[in-house]
Amino acid sequence: MTVHGQQLPGSSSSGEAPDASNRLSFVGVTTAQSAIMRVFPVWAAHLGLGDVVMSGHDLPMHAPRERYREVVAEMRSGRSELGGLVTTHKIDLFSACRDLFGYIDFYADLCGEVSCLSKRDGVFRAHAKDPIACGRAMDAFVPEGHWSDADAGALLFGAGGSSIAMTLHLMTVREPGDRPHRIVVVDRNPARLLSMRELHERLDTGVAVEYRENLDAHENDRLLAELPAGSLVVNATGMGKDTPGSPITDDAAFPEGGMIWDLNYRGELDFLHQARRQQPDHGLAIEDGWRYFLHGWTVAMEEVFGIEITPVDL
């Protein structure tokens, strides 16, 4: 990993001791269990970030609005607070705290979510970095030109922030000739599906998207069976990490030559194990969420610390 950029908060060009109270916040559900708590101190030392500590904020899923505002107000007003990263709560936190931000970037406004908080020139800033992080991770997993000579599609289980980021990358960043012919998004929450549909309609990219309200794993099996060879299948539900199980049953059949992506990297990882059992017979390419996790943090750190990070051998 290499880094290029400007003087960092928490570091000193004069040789003076850095401010030991500088904090980078992490808003999640079970932050102490995240690998970032072990990884960040190593990154901070390697990148020369000074004496910066990680501060975890654990909130239950869909926490009360007041709790989100308490955490964000503390980050905004604290002189030692540099910014932070948000997981799981990206949509709810943004909805509860939108008025607390002095700057909202394009993707945050478009997607109605926030994954990164930063401060620049006295302005408290909200960013949605998932489309960038997701794109970097996907481009390393799904080769360029994958959809150009195939009838392959994409099936996304879950319509939350990660799926929104993924569809944005597939529909707008990939070249028009290298996009899925059809994207199917499945979620149990009709409001999430409606929100995604409205966002896609604003883009008008011409990519066909189907929005399926469903919580029956057997119906998900049927949707999986309909996919052409080489299709992308993604578990973006949190099942296997935040909640038990998998969006499909053990009887489900993955498409031949499919690209299978479980966005989880820790937990029971049921979906990932289901795919691995079929890998030899179906020629599957399988990815977990570790690379996405790393890119999610590096793009946030680039924004918070005003640096450029080039990950090597993720």
Question: What's this model, at a glance?
Answer:
The protein has 314 residues and is of the alpha/beta class.
The top-level CATH class of the largest domain is: Alpha Beta
Give the spatial strand order of the biggest sheet: 3-2-4-6-7-5
CATH homology-level superfamily of the largest domain: NAD(P)-binding Rossmann-like Domain
Summed up, the helix count is 10
Structure summary, number of beta strands? 14
Termini separation (Å)?
9 Å
What's the helical proportion of residues? 25-40%
Mean pLDDT: 90
Give the SSE string: EEHEHEHEHEEHEHEHEHEEHEHE
Number of domain units = 2
Coarse morphology: globular
- Radius of gyration, in Å, reads 20 Å
The name CATH uses for the topology of the largest domain is: Rossmann fold
Beta fraction = 15-25%
State the low-pLDDT regions, or none: 1-20
Oligomer: single chain
CATH architecture descriptor text of the largest domain: 3-Layer(aba) Sandwich
Largest sheet: 6 strands, mixed
Helix-strand category: alpha/beta
Any overview of this molecule?
- The protein is α/β, with parallel strands linked by helices and 314 residues long.
- Helices cover 37% and strands 21% of the residues.
- It contains ten helices and 14 strands.
- The longest helix has 16 residues, at 290-305.
- Mean pLDDT is 90; it is low at 1-20.
- Helix 5 crosses helix 6 (161-173) and helix 5 (130-141) packs across helix 10.
- The radius of gyration is 20 Å and the shape is globular.
- It folds into two domains: 2-128, 3-Layer(aba) Sandwich (Rossmann fold); 132-289, NAD(P)-binding Rossmann-like Domain (Rossmann fold, 3-Layer(aba) Sandwich).
- It has a six-stranded mixed β-sheet with strand order 3-2-4-6-7-5, sandwiched between helices. The protein has a six-stranded parallel β-sheet with strand order 10-9-8-11-12-13, sandwiched between helices.
